[in-house]
Amino acid sequence: MELNELLEELRGETCRCGKKKVSMQTLCRKDYMSLPPGMRQALYRRVGAGYEEAYEAACEYLDDKAA
Question: Residue 39 contacts by C-beta under 8 Å, 6 or more apart in sequence?
Fold first, then answer.
């Protein structure tokens, strides 16, 4: 995912699952609470300092869980 796409998604009000989320929060509450605690904490990293990798890991986790 390109950085501008990632930032646009972060600023948006729709979660990757299609549900409503708060702008500047990565995921909706349901998806966020589905993540293990360490993975949730990693989403607080700054863009350019590990956030991108944390987001990718969270998406993979959620996709695997849904499958």
Answer: 54, 57, 58, 61
